[in-house]
Q: What sequence folds into this?
C-alpha cells in the first residue's frame, strides 16, 4: 500500500514510530505537496470569478503548474520510502567473503546515491512551488491571500527539510566528486530562499 | 468523517479544490503535528538503545510531551474545519428583518472569534513543539538528528501559517479590544522564533 493512500492519522502514527520510513524525507515531500495544493486552492477560488476576469489565463497556467508539481511531490514521497528500503536491503547483503563484501559495498554506494538524489529532487521541486506563491498572492482571490502565504511557508520548509536529508546522506558518502557536485547543486537551490520566504510572508501580512 | 481519517492523497485533493475547508489553518495544524511526530520518532529511535542509556528518562519525558502535542494538533485540525463551518452557517442566517440582521451579526461575530482563536491555539502549540526540537537534537539518536531539524522547520512553518490565519480573521473583526488582545498574544508567540528556527537548523547542519 502506498504511504499516501493511508489515512493522515496513520501516516502520523508511522512517522512517530521507530520504523525507519516514513521519515524526514517523506515529510519534506509532503510539505511541498501541501504548498502546491494551497497554490491550486488559491487558483481554484479565482477561476470563473468575474472580479478576476483579467487574470483568468494567468491563473489557469498557475494551476496547471501547481497541480503538476503536487503530483511530482506526491510521487517523490513514495520514492523516498523506496530509496530507504533499497538502502536497508543493500546493508543486509551477506559479507562473509571478500567478494560478498565488495558486492555489498557497491550496492550500498549505489543505494546511498539514490537516497541522496531523491531529496535533492524534492528540494528542486519545492523551489518551483515557491516560485508560484508570489504570483498566486498577487493575482489570486484576495480572500485566499493568507493561503498563498501558507503555501510559501510550506514550500520553503520542504526545501530546507529536503536539504537536511541530502546533507545527512552526503556525510556518509565516500565518492568525493559526487559529494561536491550535489553540495554545489544544493547551495544554488538554497541561495536566497530564506529571504524570498520572508518577503512573500511580509507582503501577505501587509494585505491582511 | 474526520479529515484526518481520510487518505493523505484525498486530504491533498480537498485542499487543492475550491472547497473552503480544509485550508491554510488545517495545514498549519498538520504541519505542527508532523513536527511533533518527528520529535516522537527521534525519541522512539533512542529509547532502549544502550549508547543512550544516560538520557533514557529525559527522552521518555520528551516523548510524552511530543505525543501530547501531536494529539492536540490533530484535534485542532478538526476544530479549524468546524470553526469555518460555523462561520459559513452564521453567514447564511436570514437577514430580512432588523431583528434577523442583528441576530446574524451576533452569530457571525462569535463564529469569527472562534475562527481566530483556533489558529491562535495552533500557534501556541506549535511553539511548544519548537521547544522540544533542540533537546531532541542534543539528546536523541545522532542518526536521526536531521529529523529533529525537519521537526523545527515544520513547527515554525506551523506557527507562521497559524499567524496568517489569525491575522486574516482579525482584519475583519470590529471588536477592537479583542483584536488588540489577540494581536498582542500573537506577537509574543512569534517573537524570536525565526531566529530560533535558524539556530537549530544551523546546529543540525553542523552535525551532518
A:
Amino acid at each position: 500500500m502506498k504511504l499516501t493512500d493511508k489515512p493522515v492519522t496513520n501516516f502520523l502514527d508511522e512517522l512517530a514510530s521507530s520504523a525507519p520510513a516514513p521519515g524526514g524525507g517523506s515529510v519534506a515531500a509532503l510539505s511541498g505537496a501541501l504548498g502546491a495544493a494551497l497554490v491550486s486552492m488559491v487558483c481554484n477560488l479565482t477561476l470563473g470569478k468575474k472580479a478576476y476576469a483579467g487574470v483568468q489565463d494567468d491563473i489557469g497556467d498557475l494551476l496547471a503548474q501547481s497541480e503538476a508539481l503536487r503530483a511530482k511531490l506526491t510521487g517523490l514521497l513514495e520514492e523516498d520510502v523506496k530509496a530507504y528500503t533499497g538502502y536497508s536491503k543493500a546493508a543486509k547483503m551477506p559479507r562473509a567473503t571478500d567478494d560478498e563484501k565488495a558486492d555489498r559495498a557497491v550496492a550500498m554506494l549505489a543505494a546511498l546515491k539514490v537516497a541522496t538524489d531523491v531529496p535533492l529532487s524534492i528540494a528542486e521541486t519545492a523551489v518551483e512551488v515557491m516560485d508560484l506563491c508570489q504570483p498566486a498572492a498577487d493575482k489570486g482571490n484576495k480572500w485566499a491571500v493568507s493561503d498563498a502565504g501558507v503555501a510559501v511557508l510550506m514550500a520553503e520548509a520542504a526545501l530546507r527539510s529536503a536539504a537536511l536529508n541530502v546533507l545527512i546522506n552526503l556525510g556518509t558518502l565516500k565518492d568525493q566528486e559526487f559529494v561536491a557536485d550535489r553540495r554545489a547543486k544544493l547551495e544554488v537551490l538554497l541561495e536566497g530562499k530564506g529571504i524570498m520566504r520572508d518577503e512573500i510572508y511580509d507582503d501577505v501580512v501587509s494585505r491582511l
